[in-house]
Amino acid sequence: MTRHLRNDWSVDDEDAILETIDKWVEAEVRPIAREYDQADEYPHDLVEQMKELGLFGATISPAYGGLGLPTSTYAKIVTKVTAVWMVPSGIFNSHLIMASAIERCGTEDQKAAWLPEMARGDLRGGIALTEPNAGTDLQAIKTRAEKDGDNYILNGSKMWITNSLYGDCLLVLAKTDIDATPRHKGMSAFLCKRGEGYDVAQKLKKLGYRSIDTCELVLDNKRVPAAALLGGEEGRGLQQVLGGLELGRINVAARGAGIAEGALQMATRYAQTRQTFGKMIAEHQAIQLKIGEMASRVAAAKLLVDDAARRFDSGERCDMEAGMAKYFATETGVYCAEEAMRIFGGYSYAPEYEIERFYRDAMLMCIGEGTNELQRIIVAKQYVERNPA
């Protein structure tokens, strides 16, 4: 299915918006990133600025007030933001995965009711899939949704949910038929706003990716209208959310590339100021080997992200390409963060040098949106299918 993009989009438009993002990142994001990360403080002011920039409507169709950006442009935005601080990109990406599911699978009434507000950022959302005992295996979730007249009543617990504390709504995956075979036919997705029965149990403390509101969510007799069932049909929830994860994986891949590029940039700057044995460490062959490898991997990661994004925009099947990009780019983020730590030496352990934050943030990208082990399996299965003997 071809996405509803602006039909007047040009390279000049992309250059203009990327220049705007560059200026915003340098003026507003970079100055506060370390302070907010150390304090684990949510960046409310940045969220308001992101609303003004249109980032909450970046990939939403212009028909609903969004920018309708190509995913290839969106991925470049994510990389630029993440090269300085990963948190802002997580806030608008989780929101856009929910919006994507509504635009792809929702009824016309649901699109009209939800997407304009989401495009403006007046209604900020996310996805509530994972549970304490169900991550990669989403079919093992236990959250229930039972029909009660013109409503559904939701009960269950969700874990690691972004935008659940400071956001306004979530796309919740639940079981509507616990006896269905296969299991996915008993799963449905619901558009759920904050309110009675929607309780954030706790904001989770994390090694990295601080400042963002990653929480445990408890749904206790949460009542939603029947019109909140995404697409108006039970049993399609898993397919609906998995379709949106391609966009999510491209985003995470772009974040991996951003972490890698940010680490490379910091290490390169530091290597030209730090001296040992009478010369800049950038002149030592051992450091040059590291920088050369990092720069090559960053360039390759960005190309893989761009390829997956362009295929997504064209409506082609791209689970293999998104899996490749997600796997390689996020592993590159980890690699470059670690190599940069080695280049910084002992100073890498000091919070005054922000490379330690990149090192803490990087590993999450290998786990989130489907582990990298799963990505390699997806890639292998698709590669074999496309290349029969």
Summarize the structure.
With 389 residues, this protein is an alpha+beta fold. The chain has helices at residues 11-39, 44-53, 71-82, 87-105, 108-120, 237-271, 285-314, 319-344, 355-367, 372-386; strands at 127-128, 144-148, 151-162, 169-175, 187-193, 198-203, 214-225, 275-276, 279-280.
Query: For the record, what CATH class of the largest domain applies?
Result: Mainly Alpha
What can be said about the biggest beta sheet? 4 strands, antiparallel
Q: What's the Cα radius of gyration?
A: 21 Å
Number of extended strands: 9
Tertiary shape: globular
The CATH architecture of the largest domain is: Up-down Bundle
Q: In sequence order, what are the helices and strands, one letter per element?
A: HHHHHEEEEEEEHEEHHHH
What structural class results from the helix and strand content?
Answer: alpha+beta
CATH T-level fold name of the largest domain: Butyryl-CoA Dehydrogenase, subunit A, domain 3
Give the overall average pLDDT: 94
Alpha plus pi helix count: 10
Poorly predicted parts: 1-5
Distance between the termini: 29 Å
Count structural domains.
3
What do you see in this structure?
The chain is an alpha+beta fold and 389 residues long. It folds into 3 domains: 11-120, Butyryl-Coa Dehydrogenase, subunit A, domain 1 (Orthogonal Bundle); 127-237, Butyryl-CoA Dehydrogenase, subunit A, domain 2; 239-383, Butyryl-CoA Dehydrogenase, subunit A, domain 3. Helix content is 52%, strand content 14%. The protein is built from 10 helices and 9 strands. The strands form 3 sheets. It has a 4-stranded antiparallel β-sheet, with helices on one face. Strands 1-4-5 form a 3-stranded mixed β-sheet. Strand 2 and strand 3 (151-162) form a beta hairpin. It is globular, with a radius of gyration of 21 Å. Residues 1-5 have low confidence and may be disordered.
